[in-house]
Amino acid sequence: MTQKKAEKNEDGTEIVQINKWDGSQVKHAIDDAFKNALMERPNCREHFGIIDGRLIICFLAVGIALFALAYDYIYTFPTSRPILIICVSSYFVLMGILTVYTTYIEKGIFAVAIQSDSNGNTLRKYTASSDMKKYDDKYSISLSVKDAKNPPREVSSTKSCANYIDVDGAICHDLISAELKKLYNSLNSADKKDK
């Protein structure tokens, strides 16, 4: 079993230490660090729309399963057979919808941030997604932005995950913040070129 450890630094920042040989744990820890760095941008707040969609599909599936369980408890099996067939079929359809949703809509997105002005009006919507193949050390991050004035733009970077963690397995937040700043600045420079 792998463990993620969190300790406090002298200045109060949290040091996240992971098992650097567990690719899944490395990817998720780097994703979390990029998400935290993105939310530290001025006037940014997290938008949970994509996660809410997944939760709604899962809620419906669990609701159908609980209804089938309750109906079968009240009306024993021979009587409840048609309802159980409908509930089981609906459950599998919802699991298929969930698979399509996570594959084609989420597509590795781990953070969505809304940047607002001082009045609370939405200026930009940033979407961060990542990919890291199994048994590979290459971590790819993509940052895209949508606003009302320009077409959607995207920049990406692919580096070894060793660029973001040290030899002890601690996440290097300063390196992640610098990489995010570079991506953020390249998006903004593309915005200035369009004007």
Which labels suit this protein?
single chain, 195 residues, alpha+beta, 5-stranded antiparallel sheet, two-stranded antiparallel sheet, 4 helices, 49% helix
- Number of discrete helical segments: 4
**Class based on secondary structure composition and strand pairing:** alpha+beta
Beta-strand percent range: 15-25%
* SSE order: EEHEHHEEEEH
What is the C-alpha radius of gyration, as a whole number of Å?
Answer: 22 Å
The average pLDDT value, as a whole number, equals 83
The unreliable regions are none
Give me the side-by-side strand order of the main sheet: 3-4-5-6-7
Rough outline = globular
Helix content: 40-55%
